[in-house]
Structures are given as structure tokens and as C-alpha cells.
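Predict the 3D structure for this chain.
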Amino acid sequence: MVIWTDGQYPFLGDVNRFMLEKVIRAIIPVERDLLTKAREHLDNLTKPRGSLGRLEEIAASLYAVNKGNKPVVEPGLLYTCAADHGVAAAGVSLYPREVTRQMVMNYLAGGAAVNVLARKAGLELKVVDAGVSGDDFLSHEQLISRKIRPGTKDLSAGPAMEDDICLQALEMGVELAEKASLRGIKTLCTGEMGIGNTTSSTALYCAFLNLEPLDLAGAGTGLDARGIRKKAAVIALALEKNRSAVESGDPRKILAALGGLEIACLAGIILGGAANRMNVVIDGFISGAAYVCAWKMNPFVRDYCFFSHLSAEKGHALAMKTIGARPILDMGMRLGEGTGAAIAFFILKCAAAIFNEMATFDQAKVSRQDHITI
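Done. Predicted structure below.
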């Protein structure tokens, strides 16, 4: 798919050449009959019907995403997008804002959990500086330096960012997905880092899904009960301060008012991945909020997305239930970074392998149940 009006990347020139709405309109649902065809193939493999459970569901979805061709999952790319949040100053995290920058340095040094899990899963990892406070990082082969601004404003005092800043972050994400597709990447995995981003994500869930802050606000970096109540109060204040945006129902206005630069970038990656018919693996709580933003822009993104795991962050289960999503894994994890997505990527590889490599009953000369008479 070509999504630039003149074949050029917007961040290499005039940003106005890019039309986000064109990308959103390009996302179409997968053909439902392909899911039926996939299940027929799976039922003809040497196993009792449905005995591989969720693997079969995932395999069928992969087949449909790939337009009825054999499921392809590799190569995969994980984007860990990082940015700072002005709301961190409201005391919603146990960690100071500086940790965002320090963790980016850890990713680039290869020492974080996401580095380890991406390596084991066979994923390429790229770290995106979408809005980390401070100077630009030194050049690194794993770094994509696209700082739009050094963090957002405090969403509990007003909009986190201006509409045009939000649009730039969305467009950047779409560009990253497009460039990955042109390189032959088949699966995009999402991840993030940003002190204060569980607060921003919770506010987005509340605004988009009509949920209450006290029902969703969780420990984040490890808050105690008192800290969680304070966090919920900050989110409630943010929703009130940005009431006009919330009540507008406009996904971009809500994202600009309550989101983060890394969350907007992830929403763009999800939109761009779906527009390019790629498999998109959603990480956990924060990436889930980015998904909801993209889903509100075009609900057909659902056909291309795989929810990696149920986060232990309070509220994730409620949010997933509300949107009808079934995460693949439940590991009690709540780190973020893309760690859940990296593990789920391996599950997708397994699902594709059973579809592509298992023998049929006829090939293996194994009797089928419907051929047996008693």
C-alpha cells in the first residue's frame, strides 16, 4: 500500500503531504469466508477437531490477514516508543521523570527485559524517542530519534498536547509501520516507556469506554492504596479539565487532550500496520490504550491485532472485557516495554507453523473420526 501522496515520507519533508484520513479509510475488514476456509484446513490436520484451542483461532486469523495465503509471521519488529509525561509532576508514579531517559539508555545497552525477550523471540527491536525530555540521544543502530517535543503537558491542568502535535505523533507511527512493511516486515509488536503513562492510559480508557477512574487506576510503578486513590483523583480531574474534548467523541481530540506522544505514535503504528495488512501484536495496558484510540478511528483494526497478554495492572481486564478482546497469555506481568508482545510473537509463530507444517489426514494416511464406523 502507498500511503504518501507523492511517495515521500512526511518527516523527511513537508508534513502536510501526508493524509491520516487516507490511511484510516484504507483499513478494511478481512474476508470472513477466509476464516471459514482456514478452519476447514485446520480441521483436516492430524488431530482431533479444535484440539489445539487458541492456536487454531490465531492461525485462522493469520491466514485471513494474509489474504488466504499461508500465514506468515516472520520477520517481526518490535517498536518500543518512549516519551515523557507532564502529569508525572502530579505525583502519580514512584519513579521520577528522569527514569524514562535512563531506561532508554538501558534499552540501547541491551540490558532490559524487552531486549532479552526480543532476542529470544527472534524479534528485531527498535527504540523510538518520540518525546523524551532532555537532549537527543547519541546515534545508535537501534535508536529511531524522532523527538517531537520533550514530553507532554500536565493533562490534569488542561490538554496534554496540541492537536497538531498529536497529529505529528500519529503520522510518525504510520510512517514507521509503512517503512517496516516496505522492508518486508510481516509482524509489528508494540511496546512503550514513559513515567506517568499508566495515568494517561487510564484516562484514555475512561474517556473512550465510559469507565470510572477508581475502577481502572492501578499500581503502575508500585503505588500503594493511598497512591492509587491519588492517581484516580488526578485522572478524574484530567477528565473534568478536558471535558469538551471527551464529550466531543472525536478520537484525535481525546488522544491529544489525555494521551502521550508515545501512545499517539503507537496508535499510528497500529493504524499503519492494519492499513498494510500486517499482523499487529498489542503489548499490555498502555499499548492497549493506544489500540483503543486506533480502534475508535477505524474499528476494522481489530481484524489485524492480537492482544498479547492480560496485564496485572488493575483495570486492564475490565478494559479488555469492555472492548471484547481476549489476550493470549495471562502471566501476571505489568512491565510494559513490549515484553508481553515479544512472548506472544513466539505463540504466533507456533500458530503459523501448525497451519503450514502439519500433515493432513490423507497425507499421513491416518483415519479420520468421520471415516470410522462402529
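The longest helix spans residues 163-182.
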